[in-house]
Amino acid sequence: MTEDTPSSEQPLTVQPMGPWKLAWRQLRRHRLAIWAGRVLLGMYAVMLLDGFLCPYDYDSQRRDHAYHPPSRLQFFDSQGSFHLRPFVYGSRYFFDPITFERQWVEDTTQVYPLRFLVKGDATTIVLGGVRIRRHLFGVEAPGRLYLLGADYQGRDLFSRLIFAARVSLTIGLVGTTISMIIGMIVGGLSGYLGGWADNLIQRLCELIMLIPGLYTLMILYNALPAGLSSAQVYFGVVVILAFIGWASLARVIRGMVLSIKTSDFVTAARAAGVGPWRIILRHVLPGTFSYAVVAASLSIPAYILGESGLSLIGMGIQDPTPSWGNMLQAAVNIAELTKHPWLLWPGAAIFVTVMGFNFLGDGLRDALDPRMRTS
Predict the structure, then answer these.
(1) I want to staple 149 with a disulfide (CB 3.0 to 4.6 A). Which of 34, 106, 218, 342 is the partner?
(2) Residue 46 falls inside a structural domain
(3) How many domains does the chain have?
(4) What pLDDT digit, counting tens, does each position of 310-323 carry?
(5) pTM for the full model?
(6) Are 121 and 187 part of one and the same domain?
(7) Does residue 20 belong to any structural domain of this protein?
(8) Which domain does 109 fall in, by range?
(9) Considering 135, 155, 175, which residue would you say is the last residue of a domain?
(10) What is the Cα–Cα distance from 157 to 320, expressed in whole angstroms?
(11) What digits encode the pLDDT tens for the residues 24-80?
């Protein structure tokens, strides 16, 4: 007789996956959302190193270079010789005798090679607040490098566009964070307490939502004291935008809490003598996090557009501190835009950022919704 040998096959075990792992697996299948997230991460990384990546300070002016067109990086000189290091020519202008417009031409007698770690304006980078004088690339003075052209004061648009991300990219995150905290706490209290507190909070939310957002922005901005610094105006605009945005979120959170508070685990916590605040913060509000994440990603573009709109009409961040909104003021004039189309670059930055957050929000919505998950 032969002895029975144990089977070499092991029983199949399936490791359970938590809701966040399932959401991440679903999100990875949404290619557009992943690429949007990568683009946004790249933009925030550039913002953190802005002073190092920019060849000039955001207020470095050359009035004689007003509306200078974008510089052309070249590898072949006027004699046809190849240069391994790219360079730009100097430039000069003349006035057209017929149109009386300034015309720029390259001066081939002035050659400025592109250099790395070049010494220039003293700037501060966001990451650590370090003040530096070395920049990633640039040209030696008196040359001037305008990758995206110059504005009416001869300031480099590329440098100002990156420095402006400090305002335009962070105002959405800060404003959304504030409104999310207020909306979730107020909505959680309203739904959990009920009764007269619920009625009072909901009437307040409806009152705020009834006032058109643009008029509310204008009223609250005019209520700010005069003579504020750029940093104070920034925080004032953040508070104004957050004040407008929390009410609609609170109403949605309130509806979700009404269903969550009847769950067995909430009833058990209440029977165990747990206080209302602990139940709301530990047991009720975490059930709304999936919606809050999606709502935050979709509301950040609204804050960016709100700040850009305020700055565009002169009621937000003021020059010389750059934001994408106040940089677009020069593009409002159709005559100037026709002659200098590179003034629209801030609009392109706003478009890419808003679309990036929208695509990312769509992916998060599909990933966090159990009904949208596929095996």
Answers:
(1) 342
(2) no
(3) 2
(4) 788 777 788 888 98
(5) 0.84
(6) no
(7) no
(8) 54-155
(9) 155
(10) 13
(11) 888 888 899 999 999 999 999 999 999 999 999 999 999 889 899 999 999 988 888
